[in-house]
Amino acid sequence: MRIYCECGLYTRYMTNLKEEVFDVNCINCGSPVAVKYNGRKNCYETIRE
After folding, report:
1. Nearest one of 41, 43, 39, 30 to 2, comparing CA atoms
2. Which end of the chain offers a freer environment for a tag, N or C, measured as fewer CB atoms within 10 Å?
3. What does pTM read for this prediction?
4. pLDDT at residue 49 tops 90
């Protein structure tokens, strides 16, 4: 799973969660980052607005 935070940090995580949408806390600033499962790529991606 790749996380792109608003603070500019890019982080890769590994997970065994089965949820479609959930929040991950940024390890740099602590703010929650929403991620969603992308079935085409078979991975979780940051939800960008």
Report:
1. 43
2. C
3. 0.77
4. no
